[in-house]
Amino acid sequence: ALAANAQDEMWDKSASGRQHPNIQWFKEAKFGMFIHWGLYSKLGGVWNNKRYYGSGEWLMNQAKVPADIYAAEAATFNPVNFNADEWASLAKEAGIRYMVITAKHHEGFAMYDSKVSDFTIVKSTPYKKDPMKALADATRKRGIQFGFYYSQFLDWHEPNGGGNRWDFDESKKDYQRYYREKSIPQLKELLTGYGPLGIVWFDMPGGLTKQQTQQLVDSLRVLQPASLFSSRVGQGLGDYRDFGDSEVPPAPINEVWESIYTHNDSWGYIEHDMNFKSPREIIRLLANVASKGGNLMLNVGPDGKGNIPYYSVQYLKATGKWLQQNGESIYGTTYGFIPAQPWGVTTAKPGKLYLHILDRPADGKLLLPGCAVTVSKVYTLVGKRVLSFAKKGTDVIVNIPGMDAQSPNTVLVVEYQGK
Ligand code: JFZ
User: Fold this and answer.
1) TM spans, by residue (predicted)?
2) Amino acid 7: pLDDT
3) Residues near ligand 1 with C-beta < 6 Å?
4) Among 181, 219, 329, 336, which residue's Cβ finds the most Cβ atoms within 10 Å?
């Protein structure tokens, strides 16, 4: 609840009437892939033989590692298995429409070729290449929108960066200088060196006044006017609303918004976390988020060698199989006019209501209460099997066939006039 409140403060509801001119693709996309990848991925949630659980990208903070000792880990970070085309084609196969990857997380390490810092994958690791260049190209080639996550305030590597209180004296920090010398120059590098970005995903604002945040946003807008900025840029200046982690609003929201979820219990790779959401859970979560009018951005945490965890690969592919057959009921939809029911949830397009059956009613009768439209036809999305239905006042009752009880989500299409 605390996280949700913090998130609400970041989002200025009065700004929801304002629309970014390039918001349409995002409204239709529905399914994004978040990737947390950095030095922490090599550590995998272990420091000095002690295992930490949850938020592996916070390991430096959890273990209170001094900045110079942490930085020395870069000398053995060598993601030789990283293959941009593999990641991008996995995303494609999974039905992903946009990808956001950590260019720099709170640890302060640039996963790209930054000229304004020495703490980068190119300068301080044996790998020496810029994986972000390759990934930006590979995703765009497949029609996937590409974006960067950038931790604009928290930077535990820099004496003047936000957040590192176990190592650097808080009272001596000069945030203005940090923004001037690292954060803003790095953001400018990311917005000029990697082609058109779908999204710049800022995180955890701090250290700036509202006016300074506005200046930051204005100076970056000039570089990429078409790029969407996440709400965590702060001060209500984002282009769409992000909910707190693993949070879906209880009812539909007529705004542009996104829910972000981890695939297991961490954003960054944790070698001892096997708690991955099954394809069934992902498919149902995606339907639930879409039925409230939002996008789901699901995170994966590749390891220090550059491998996406086995279960993430398998489960994303299975999700993609479902989407290939049922994508019409997710992509380009908004929430349906029937709220969540005991049997499931609804999404909609003009003239079509999609019924996502998550729990089949035992008597085979699907109730649509308050269905004040003229229904012309009901059929299964897969197989186009036409179903009979009855009308009782404003209730519509659909006779549904015996279904595969194991199916994660069976979709029916209701064609109608009116509304
Ligand atoms: C932030 C990061 O600290 C974390 O490591 C991860 O990258 C995540 C996606 O974002 O964590 C947050 C930030 C804001 C909220 C919750 C977690 N919030 O406001 O609900």
Assistant:
1) none
2) 58
3) 3, 6-7, 55, 57-58, 203-204, 244-245, 260, 267
4) 329
